[in-house]
Amino acid sequence: MARTRRAGGTAALRTAQRGAAGALLGVGALGLLLFSLGREHSWQALGGGLVVAGASTVLGGALGFLFGVPRMRGGPGDEPHGSYAPNTNLEQVSDWLTKVLLGVGLTQLGSLGERLHQLGAALAPALGGEEGAAPFAAALVLYFLVLGFLAGWLVTRLALPQVLSDADQALDLFLAGQDRDLRGDKVGADDLRVRAMQHLGLLGGSVERATEPARRLPSNATTGPESLMAEVRSTARRSALTADQVRELFADGSEDRRIQALALMQGDPALADLPSVLDAIEHPRSGFEQYHALLAARGLLYRLPAAQAQRLRDAVAGRLVAADGIPYGSDRSWLAEKILSRLETTAALPQQTGPAPQTGPAAEPPSAQPGEQARQTG
To answer: Higher confidence at residue 227 or residue 338?
Structure first.
């Protein structure tokens, strides 16, 4: 109930903010329109006013951006994230420019009225040059300059920190995925890459990614279903379970057991069972389960004979084209397309043709040529 109230309050606040922004912009545009209609050259005044208002808004937005650039917590000499240090050039430039602008503005406060009059006189010809054009031009610049400044500052303060944080987290995940790839953990590397692209907004997540399916996974892992799955995957090779036991775990029927079995198959391909993986791909209990079934299939690509590889290719391609199958642009579609591309690459490798050579005393001698047979029977 409390969560519903908070969501409703947030939605109402956003609606009020958008309404206020639209009202402020509308008042300025309406004032410019009414002023232009009373001029002799109304279209010239309207066009010139729009250009002046747009330029003032852009300038105000740039100033708001400089004043709103967030500061990094800690100093540049602190411990870097992963294997890189954050770049603070933008923060330093913003700090210098804001100090310079404030200093210059404070020293020119006494002549502010004169400067505004000169600005209005310079812009008056763009608004028709008639009586009243100069003060209206100065007021127009001030109005849209302040409006642009507030908009730029608010957007920078509210949106830029989240964007920078997501970019840092995505870079950390990409670097961790590269490290996993170098260690031979292709499945873990792909999982980290998918999560990095989700942080950047390049991929949609699997639906129904709730923590409930992971409730029977190890309790000593960090919180979150993805961390729990990574913990099970990392302990798979040290597990005393056999492939038959993992298959029985998947056949238990409950979603949490199926997902746990898929995590074990991801960590150790020797425990994988292709029919179980295909069942989770074609008949998943949730998008979360199908995602991890695709990860398990990713680890089996170079271990499958031709017939089973074709079966996996048909299953993945069928779910991609099905109306109720894998959503386009999701993390599952990225994995599915990668699996299909790897299967096509594997199928394109030259295969050994003809029967394998036989060795030992049981091997048949090569067949005689027709001419030799004729000589032997002649």
So the answer is: 338
Distances (CA, A) of 124 to 32, 45, 60, 344: 13, 9, 20, 68
Q: Identity (one letter) of the amino acid at 303? A: R
Statement: residue 7 has pLDDT above 70? no
